[in-house]
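[job 0417] fold request received: Ent-kaurenoic acid oxidase
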Amino acid sequence: MVTMGEAWGFLLPLAALAAALSAAFGGVRRLHAWAWERRLGAVARSHLPPGDMGWPFVGNMLAFLRAFKSSDPDAFIASFFRRYGGTGMYKAFMFGSPTIMVTAPELCKQILMDDDHFVPGWPKATNELVGEKSFIAISVEEHKRLRRLTASTINGYEALSTYLQFIEKTVALTLERWASKGSIEFLTELRRLTFRIIMKIFLCSEDEILIESLERVYTDLNYGMRAMAINIPGFAYHRALKARRTLVAILQSVLNERKAMRRTNLSPTKNDMMDRLMEVEDANGRKLCDEEIIDVLIMYLNAGHESSGHITMWATVFLQEHPDVFEKAKLEQDEIRRNRPPMQKGLTMKEVRKMEYLSKVIDETLRIVNISFVSFRQATKDIYLNAYLIPKGWKIQLWYRNVNLDPQSYPEPKKFNPSRWDDFVPKAGSFLPFGAGSRLCPGNDLAKLEISVFLHHFLLDYQLVRLNPNCQVRYLPHPRPVDNCIARIIRIN
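[job 0417] inference complete; emitting structure tokens
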């Protein structure tokens, strides 16, 4: 029998060891923070936001990944709020860099609108995978030029009207095919649908074998976007780099073929996005180089099907889970179809603009799901914001997820309620599904058009029956059910 004295004699050394280890670990973390902050000087250090720089090399990434691989991704920022209060700004060490994380809507807005003090600061993995000539990596001046040259070919009213007929035809045929099957991976099939649409728009391709193989390559690319830049076999970043090389080779081959055809025929060969990018020129007569064209296409092909596919899935799921919302949205689409002239075939842009309640459904889905949960900037000089210092060269993370789920702007923020948008215009900076300022996502209108057309046909003629309605959700790189939403599509009319 162990006496009380013997028990204490056993426990006290253990307690001392635990205390020593805790102090040692705490000392390592403090040393890591000191190594990055010491060059700022004592006065500057005293004005940094509160926070925690984490462990050497990995910083706060382990806590970030742990939260986003759990059922509670908001636990990561919540831990800073719990320890340091609701300051709206916290120092951290993320993706290999000292970082200021910004969570308050008004502060995010200030940074997004200030191109002089804040430039893109995406992680190395994202920059290398999307491309050095893509929208997210280039300078403010180059961004303005490239956006000006490409905007009308993507989001312009005329361009969207041109795409509408193909989008609707593809959606209608695809829904019919799904309804004739048994169960499908709804998200996987939606990503294929949106990729098929974007391939037609950008490369005028309907080659099913090419589309399916490229869509798989893009899956690998996308999984590396939010990964640490570890170029070792088995890691997501390594697979994503291989995927990018494959995409560049394919697009360069297509581009070379187009150039060869133009040498024998001066007229556009396909009149798709690639042709338009080859044709546009600025006021000085400068055209886009091959690298610019390829990086723009890689970015658009990725963003144009990933975000549209995921948001379409979640909007469909939310509609099916909320019968009252479903019926209200369906009535609106019924009215649009009833009022259509007898000789008209298919939707028009004018009808799409009349989908006011459906637009609220989509905005509410964008708000809750947060496909782009964070954005990245970098300070060009020392700047004070909200009385806190953001040092020159430090990265800034704008946490759109916290902005879009802010209970002060949106009571019961995780409740799906499209009617909250009735007579409600969010304050600038409090709704950031596509970012803001000069870096606003250039394909936002095209994405919303794809989603609207799909939901129009789904609401009128189909229902979704999930096989695992309580399936766990994963949040990296985008929120999705782990089973990719296995479901049956049932035709009801």
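[job 0417] notes: Residues 14-19 have pLDDT under 50 and may be disordered. The chain has one domain: 95-491.
[job 0417] exit 0
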